[in-house]
Amino acid sequence: MDFEIAPRPQMVEEFSIKKTLPSMVAANPAHVDPEYTNLYVFEEGSVNNPGDSLPDDQRDLLTQAANEPDDAVRHDLYSEFMNLVVQEPTGFMPVCNADLIYVLDPGVSGISTYNNSVRDLRGVAYTPQ
Description:
Elements (H helix, E strand, L loop, with lengths): L7 H10 L16 H9 L13 H11 L4 H17 L20 E2 L2 E2 L5 E2 L4 E2 L3
Antiparallel strand pairs: 1-4, 2-3
Helix pairs in contact: 3-4
């Protein structure tokens, strides 16, 4: 089995849309950081945002929150950002992210999934069929 490391948008394009890849493995961190989540959802060119820019006030809050070292201040900035998103919705706000869909080759074993949808790949094994 050969592996290629690629950015998530490229993997989604090639696996889900073009169907030129036989399989895809995408790991998500067990600890969800608001900075990562907001980049994944709102960043221009990400899987969930095909190219629209955030309004300046929203982008400024995200940048400020991502760079803020104080957790309490950071929390308040992200809360303010989410309030703005509700008041001034973007055209690309996802309603639901299906995060537990994956397909395995019959020779793959040892993947555990926790009740919070996090996958544990530490025990993965591959036996050619």
